[in-house]
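User: Reviewer 2 asked us to show a designed sequence for the structure in our supplementary figure. I'm pasting the structure tokens here. Could you produce the per-position amino acids so we can include them in the response letter?
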């Protein structure tokens, strides 16, 4: 099939290259010419394990190209909309200008029988509105919503082997036509027996925001338990293990620590609350305000804990921060809890040095007032405290004995409950973590 993908960020670029693997002929369109140039040269504009290889093989097949001109999308049977929906400045609501612009730009190339398939995370009601626009301007063209659930760090795997396919379709025969097109796009995935949920536009839009809200709630639940553990001397990691053995609860997404950040969870729960308010159903989601508040409190608690271990004052204390990305295996620093904490520490007078295996270039560009170091050893030189804030495998694997040689004081704060407490304490470190007793 001929397919176009509008918007080549994390979602779109991975989607475009993956669709080639499914056998299709794909053009990726993005307004950013630099990004288009990089992608056409098989260079990933962001860090995502496995993506550059996939991009290279897909380009080499001759069935993938990237363009800054939407006219190149003409003649595609399906046009995927993969642009961002960031939080509006000063508001909780999602900014839909890129989605609107993408769909409007497609109107000039769209032909009857072709399908616009939205993948961006949008407030419920957006698809119905866009469907009217599309059908009004190009009679016979179709619009479906087909949310994407990929996790950064696992984007390729999640795109090629999703847990489920969700199709939000128009009613009647148009819905049947749209479904047939999507089934053709995803034929190998459908043939592999992947569960499908075929539904209306509104449900499909809500599936995505509901899923992310549930995940955020799960993380904040365990972080609320961490607050209680701190008040009582109980251990939140053992608590999570114990409740996680109940398969109705499950252990995944119960890792207590610094909480969630990134380009999705924080803004999606806020946009969901804003939309509920517009719909007169705000009470249904007021609990998400608490989820957000618990999450943000963890960052403050981390700063307090750092001050505590630095003998009550951060002034002039040398603090090493391991991790800048919002999570491991990503160079994404959007709403990064690690950088938030690093900046707070610096504002309170600490001499902070941040390191990260992949996110240093982005961090330097976005946070020019922070100091950065290329290696954990450099960041921790003569440090009064070391904070693990993003649990990269290389930080989990640090040898506490050798690492102890570079610091001034062997004090480690494990913001992700990721280090081997016994090994670090055995090497003479004082170990502190969120939701656990001092070690
Ligand atoms: C999320 C959803 O998982 C994905 O399905 C959706 O498509 C996009 O949003 P992503 O933002 O890539 O994906 O990251 P995710 O792995 O969900 O982690 C989000 C944040 O939660 C990270 O900051 C992570 O460190 C934190 N987290 C995750 C925890 O604090 N504890 C956990 O147990 C799990």
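Assistant: Here is a per-position design you can include in the supplement:
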């Amino acid at each position: 099939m001929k397919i176009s993908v509008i918007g080549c960020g994390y979602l779109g670029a991975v989607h475009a290259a993956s669709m080639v693997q499914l056998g299709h002929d794909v053009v990726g369109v993005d307004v950013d010419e630099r990004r288009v140039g990089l992608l056409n040269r098989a260079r990933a504009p962001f860090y995502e394990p496995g993506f550059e290889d996939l991009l290279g093989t897909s380009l080499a097949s001759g069935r993938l190209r990237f363009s800054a001109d939407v006219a190149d999308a003409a003649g595609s049977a399906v046009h995927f909309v993969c642009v961002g929906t960031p939080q509006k400045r000063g508001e909780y609501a999602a900014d839909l200008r890129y989605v609107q612009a993408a769909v409007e730009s497609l109107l000039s190339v769209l032909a009857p029988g072709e399908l616009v398939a939205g993948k961006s995370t949008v407030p419920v009601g957006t698809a119905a509105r866009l469907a009217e626009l599309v059908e009004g301007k190009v009679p016979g063209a179709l619009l479906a919503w087909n949310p994407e659930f990929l996790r950064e760090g696992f984007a390729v795997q999640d795109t090629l082997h999703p847990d489920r396919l969700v199709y939000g379709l128009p009613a009647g025969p148009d819905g049947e036509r749209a479904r047939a097109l999507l089934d053709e796009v995803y034929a190998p995935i459908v043939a592999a027996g992947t569960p499908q949920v075929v539904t209306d536009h509104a449900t499909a839009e809500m599936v995505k925001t509901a899923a992310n809200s549930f995940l955020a709630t799960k993380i904040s639940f365990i972080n609320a338990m961490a607050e209680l553990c701190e008040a009582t001397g109980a251990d939140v990691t053992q608590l999570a293990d114990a409740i996680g053995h109940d398969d109705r609860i499950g252990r995944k997404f119960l890792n207590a620590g610094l909480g969630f950040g990134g380009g999705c969870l924080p803004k999606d729960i806020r946009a969901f609350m804003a939309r509920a308010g517009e719909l007169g159903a705000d009470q249904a989601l007021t609990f998400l305000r608490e989820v957000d508040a618990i999450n943000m409190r963890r960052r403050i608690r981390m700063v307090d804990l750092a001050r505590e271990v630095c003998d009550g004052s951060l002034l002039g204390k040398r603090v090493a921060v391991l991790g800048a990305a919002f999570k491991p295996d990503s160079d994404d620093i959007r709403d990064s809890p690690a950088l938030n904490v690093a900046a707070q520490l610096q504002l309170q007078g600490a001499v902070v040095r941040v390191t990260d295996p992949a996110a240093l270039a982005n961090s330097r560009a976005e946070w020019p007032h922070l100091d950065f170091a290329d290696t954990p050893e450099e960041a921790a030189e003569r440090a009064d405290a070391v904070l693990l804030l993003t649990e990269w495998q290389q930080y989990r694997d640090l040898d506490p004995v050798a690492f102890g040689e570079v610091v001034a004081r062997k004090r480690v704060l494990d913001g992700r409950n990721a280090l081997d407490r016994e090994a670090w304490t055995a090497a003479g470190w004082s170990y502190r973590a969120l939701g656990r007793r001092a070690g």
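For the response letter, you might also mention the following. Residues 149-152, 212, 215, 219, 253-255, 257, 259-262, 264-265, 326-327 surround uridine-5'-diphosphate-xylopyranose (CB under 6 Å). The domain at 2-199 is CATH 3.40.50.720 (Rossmann fold).
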